[in-house]
Amino acid sequence: MQFRPKMFHVKHHDTTENKEAVTAEEERAPEQDVESPEPEVTEASGVIAEETEQRGSGDATDDTASTAPAPGKSARSGSPLAGFSDTPLARELSEITRRRRAIEAEDLPVPSKTRVFTIANQKGGVGKTTTTVNLAAALAKSGARVLVIDLDPQGNASTALGIEHRSETASVYDVMINDVPMADVVQKSPESDLLFCIPATIHLAGAEIELVSMVAREQRLRSALDAFLAERDEPFHYVFIDCPPSLGLLTINAFVAAREVLIPIQCEYYALEGLSQLLNNIKLIERHLNPELNVSTILLTMYDSRTNLANQVAEDVRQHFPDQVLDTLIPRSVRISEAPSFGLSVIGYDANSPGSLSYLEAAAEIARRGAPIAQQ
User: Fold this and answer.
1) CB atoms closer than 10 angstroms to residue 351
2) Which has the minimum average pLDDT: 27-31, 121-125, 200-204?
3) Spans of biased composition, class Acidic residues (predicted)?
4) Domain assignment present for 301
5) Dist CA 195 CA 245 (whole Å)
6) What CATH number corresponds to the domain at position 191?
7) Which residues contact 284 (CB under 8 A, 6 or more apart)?
8) How many domains does the chain have?
9) From CA 352, how far away is CA 204, in angstroms rounded?
10) Position 45 pLDDT exceeds 50
11) Hey, how many other C-beta atoms are within 10 angstroms of the C-beta on 234?
12) pTM above 0.70, yes or no
């Protein structure tokens, strides 16, 4: 199916006429006495009021001091937190609590055989590495054994999982170029005993040139991965391959090694423009190199509900790919951006943040809609 992104036209309000109308209205309106608004009762002011009462309970010297309302309290309000449950902040906290309890109450199924995902999009900055790391951490937290293969020369997935990937470290480069077994280069992430990573080093930047002259150059990663999975006493439930932002030989190796493709799409128009080319390339690989390959999952990332454009992009993608797009949207989040600097996924960095909960929900969707459940 040919995907053609629509041109979006976001309406902007012309405020010139509105400003003139407001000015004319102000000139016609008679002068009125403006009453001072009552002080707003907030959670912070209530806490301060309680502390003030406790410190000054024995210091009152006259009837006026003893009968005056505490700071932050109105005469009509019996509690400093009166009305707080109706505020946007309270509703947000309530929703986060509900989502967290729903996640904790669910036991996710594990697949009967290893599911191998390639996370790909030739556009940079759409959240490929972030999605790879956080989905892997979320599934590991649920009890699944997960392997991350960092196929991006930048090595950002290795950094986020706390994995050593200096130039002298044995890496996926050695696996693909020097036929080193994967078992010799895999490392356990300090974040979880069920989370493993094959790191990338700077040597991987020259791998595409070296692969050109090699026999079966498109099959190098798959041959190594199949051999590694076959010899494991404890099978991996999921393998996630993080791709570079290109459609070169490294990405082709990832497509050939995988069975499923997960495409992260940023909720902006530019992210849609290269989607058609990516889908065409996946079709070519499916036809000539890997008949098992299919686009099983599309995840919308960096979603900002305050913008019309983000909602229009999400609607357009859902219309074209109703079966592949996850219900979960990954929001823009400071916590998601901060986590890699601590060598952690956002799951390990702040498990109760909105970004963390979104990735946990996305991982649950992937687990539920995936392979048949293994017999327990």
Assistant:
1) 17
2) 27-31
3) 32-41
4) yes
5) 24
6) 3.40.50.300
7) none
8) 1
9) 36
10) no
11) 7
12) yes
Q: Which domain holds residue 314?
A: 112-368
Neighbouring residues of 123: CB distance < 8 A, sequence distance ≥ 6: 245, 266, 270, 271, 273, 274
Task: Establish if 256 belongs to a structural domain.
Answer: yes
Work out the average pLDDT over 284-312.
Answer: 92
Highest averaged pLDDT of the listed ranges 12-21, 33-42, 141-150: 141-150
Domain membership flag for residue 138: yes
